[in-house]
Amino acid sequence: MDLLFCAQSVQRRRILRGIDALSPQKPCNYICRVMRISPFRYYCDVLFEAMKNEQPYDSIPNFSAADALRITGVGRNEFIDIMNKCRSKIMWKLSKSIAKELLPGLPADLAIEPWWGVRFVNFTLEEFKKLSEEETSAIDKISKEEVNSYVLFDPEVINGLYKRGMVYFDVPVYPDDRFRVLDSSFRRIMGSSNILKLGYNFQCDLHQLSQSYGELKCFQYYEMLLDIQKLFKGATGGLSGLSKKILGAGLNKTRRNSNWEERPLSQNQKEYAALDAVVLVHIFHHVKGQSQFGVTEGCKVEWKSHIVSQVNSSRSPLRF
């Protein structure tokens, strides 16, 4: 039994690490319905991991923190308050589970759209017996109907089932759908003066993106953009050559020259795309306090002078 539990725990961690994959719809159905890991449970685990390791609130990625606040009701102030309560307890150093006990027991009130689909989890016979007549009727309707939009049900019944983790919501996405949230999210990042954006020949990429996706404004204006290529004008071999010069290892160009239009992308292509991005961070951290390649030893890289912005003074304000 212990071996089975360990194997299931390992499998659970592997699946959760893949939640942010490019096409998460299939594993999400398994995670929510079979494993019964609801968004509320998942974000409680995210918060607990940070608290258990005594990490600051800012260690949680921005979008994860925003989702955690929406689902659990725990934001920065609540996080700090819980940590202060934990540290005031004598047993905190011995038992980190104190933090989990202080986290909310039920999800926060959620603004549910009428067109969201309602799905039920694989609950036990004992749980089924405890359902009210109205809840049993709702579950029966969900199992039989092809269309299960939230608007078709009694909201109080569905909300009660959601709070207890008996149902979850499915947001239908169709091939011809277009989301304003994509433009809004990227505009928050690209237009933020608090986020340093690293790239290699970045402005050329932005130009191509703005030409390809003219309806999106997020690629046309930016702040705090640092093109690593500008710091090393004499370097040859592109980003791979620069990586080899600075970090001692280049990028595998055979994966770069593969067919990127074919879907789905291969695992090698995904790894290359990730490395292509993360190598910029390593180069930046390496040279930030080091002498610049090709100049007299001891001269610091004046990277701050290479930060550029392109702001549209007439643009409409971002609404969050």
TrEMBL record:
<feature type="domain" description="FAM91 N-terminal">
    <location>
        <begin position="24"/>
        <end position="181"/>
    </location>
</feature>
<dbReference type="GO" id="GO:0006139">
    <property type="term" value="P:nucleobase-containing compound metabolic process"/>
</dbReference>
<dbReference type="InterPro" id="IPR028091">
    <property type="entry name" value="FAM91_N_dom"/>
</dbReference>
<dbReference type="InterPro" id="IPR039199">
    <property type="entry name" value="FAM91"/>
</dbReference>
<dbReference type="GO" id="GO:0008408">
    <property type="term" value="F:3'-5' exonuclease activity"/>
</dbReference>
<dbReference type="GO" id="GO:0003676">
    <property type="term" value="F:nucleic acid binding"/>
</dbReference>
<dbReference type="Pfam" id="PF14647">
    <property type="entry name" value="FAM91_N"/>
</dbReference>
<protein>
    <recommendedName>
        <fullName>FAM91 N-terminal domain-containing protein</fullName>
    </recommendedName>
</protein>
